[in-house]
Design brief:
By secondary structure, the chain is an alpha+beta fold. Helix content is about 40%, strand content about 30%. The chain contains 4 helices and 4 strands; from the N terminus they run ααβαββαβ. Bound molecules: nickel (II) ion.
């Protein structure tokens, strides 16, 4: 896509914040930081508008917990339209890490994530979402 240049006027304090963001996220320059901020904002807006997003849900759990696998499988079948793939990794004797790749309306993805996170025995759950373009 063609790149357009424009001038930005900022208070010194805000510019310091921008430069700190550049350093913290290791952006190559301020333009990249501004790009990041705009896209982040657009994605957050999309969540509100309930547009299509893609993401990943990471779950950590103890597979010995009673019925946990049964409950997780059953829920994923209920929401199969949203799920693109899932990967299961055995972290050690007890703990598992599951990554579920999802795509669909943000509100639906959040609902699925909330339901999965609510299953007894899930130690940690995190949903990351991003705009699809
Ligand atoms: Ni496992």
């Amino acid at each position: 896509m063609p790149v357009k240049r424009f001038g930005v006027s900022l208070e010194e304090e805000l510019l310091d914040s921008l430069d700190k963001l550049v350093i913290d996220h290791q952006f190559p320059n301020r333009s990249q930081a501004i790009r990041f901020l705009i896209k982040k904002n657009v994605v957050e807006e999309r969540w509100k508008w309930d547009m299509e997003v893609a993401g990943a849900l990471v779950l950590i759990y103890d597979h010995h917990k009673r019925d946990i696998l049964k409950k997780m499988t059953s829920l994923q079948h209920d929401y199969h339209c949203l799920i693109l793939s899932s990967q299961h990794i055995h972290l050690d004797h007890d703990m598992c890490l599951e990554t579920i790749t999802v795509r669909g309306k943000a509100s639906k993805l959040m609902k699925l994530a909330d339901k999965l996170k609510a299953i007894k025995g899930i130690k940690h759950g995190e949903l990351v979402m991003s705009g699809t373009h």
